[in-house]
Each structure stands twice: as C-alpha cells, then as structure tokens.
Prior knowledge:
- The protein has about 300 residues and is of the alpha+beta class.
- The chain has two domains: about 1-30 and about 265-295, no CATH class; about 30-265, Glutaredoxin (3-Layer(aba) Sandwich).
- It contains seven helices and 14 strands.
- The chain has a five-stranded antiparallel β-sheet. Strands 10-9-8-13-14 form a five-stranded antiparallel β-sheet.
- Helix 1 runs antiparallel to helix 7 (about 275-295).
- It starts with a helix and ends with a helix.
- About 35% of the residues are buried.
- Mean pLDDT is about 85; it is low at about 10-25 and about 270-280.
Amino acid sequence: MGRLSLMLVFLVLTLSFSVQGQENNVHQIRGGGSVVMEMSTAVWCDICAEHEEWIPDMVDSNGDRIIRVNLHSAINDPLGNEASNYRKGWLGQSDADSTPSYSFDGLRESTPSSSSGELQRSLLDAEADRIQHEVLEVSISFESSIVSVEAVVNEPLQINSTSMTLMLLENEASISPEDATNGKLSSNYVLKNIISVNENELIVYPQDWGAATIDSNTSIFSNFTFSWPNGLDYNSTTIVVIHEKSVTTPENGARTTFSALSWTLDQSVENESSSLWVPLILTGIIIAIIRFYSNEQ
C-alpha cells in the first residue's frame, strides 16, 4: 500500500506541474477599451518631475482604463531611443516642443494638464470619443527567448488604412543621479521597443529587433515575433497592443486609436507562485484518502 501511495503522489505532482508549465507558457488577454496616454518627457524637465508627484496615483486609480507610455527626449536624455523618436514623430511631436505634453489615443492635448483633475478630464474626453468599442484578443507565447504575440480584432471598426502596433515598456527605468538633473531617479513605463504593421509597411525600432505580419478581410489578424531584448527585465516589462489608424499627426481633432490593451508580465510570475498551491493541495487530498482507506483495512 505504501508503494501505491508513492506512485499516486508522483503521478499527481507530475501531471499538475506539467499542466501548470503549459498554462504559464501561453497567456491570453481579452480587452481593448483602454485609452493610451503618451507623455513626452525628459530627465532634465523640472515640470515633468513635478507632474510625477501625482501622475502615478492618477494612473493607478484608473486601473485598466488607461495605459501609460513615457516617450523620452533624444536630447541629453539616456532614456531617449529610436522607438520614442519614431512614436513622437508619429504623434506629430518633436524635441523642439515643450515638455511635458500628453496625447490621449493619439490626439495631443491643446492645453497641457497641470493637475490630476485636468488629466482625468482628458481621459474622460478620450473615452467619450470612443463611440464604439472593439474587442481585442491577444495570445502571448514564450519559447526560450523567442516571443510570439497574436492579436485578433474580430469586428473591427475600420480595416483599411489601419495598423497593429506592439510596444514593450520598462515599468521602472533607473536614471543615474548625474543624468537626473530634475531630481527624479526613475521613470515609469518607458517605451523601449516598437513594431507597427499595416498592409503596406512594417516599422521596427530598434531596427531588425522583430517582425510582424497582418491579414485583414472581415477581421484583422496580426502576428508579432521577436527575441527578448537584452538588458530588459522580463519581470518588469509591459506589453501593449494597439489597433489604430495608419496616420501621422492627427488632424481635425480626430483620435487614432480603435482599441488597446496591455499586459504586465510580472502578473505571470504572481500567477505562477499562487498556482503552485494547486499540486500541493491535490497531493494532500490523495494522501488523506489513502491513509483513510489504510486505517479502514
């Protein structure tokens, strides 16, 4: 009977960990209603540092309603990069413009927010402009250092002249005291890498970092593949997927975003830790049953 007990415990553990490993290798997310807030900022911007005193609380209080993206300047800023340069140009901004500035769903504020209440009002305006909502379904799979992200929009509001865009954000990027002339030693949700694909063009920054395809008929299907970037901590990274218009410099007050969602990768680690209780509980139940029947005999 003892040998049988050991065999049953071994089988339960093997099956549980096997299933758990498969589940943790593929993550599925469904959403699309989030508003993308892109902030042009810089490590030398004193007003930006003042805004950082209240922006994190405002963003956290809104949960999945808002996706924050920091776009750093290319001028004397160690966090500036090719991805931010491209995205700022896409938004119709340049490093000659004042900082901070905010864009909600691709449309830049005409009067930059100077308080949490004003920023909240801009979020509400962007949500109100979403007359309809798309449902965006994303599946993220990991195999060694290769990442595959599949994004599907089954009932798109628009197909022609639209792009699917993927961003990698560093949740908290460190800044050395020598560079942080405004006193802030970190920056949240910093854009590091970007891929944007439509029927005519593929944009990748840094160059050759990844690839993407898109197929559209009555629905939109896109696939992004890339190698995990060196120096970017998996546990402190957010993946953002956006379906948006394939235009630069939004005009006539028109926003560009149809749907957007984000996934913070450290959520996967939390899920893995909590789910380890499952095989332990199953093992305990099996042992209790075996002991009960052993005593009966």
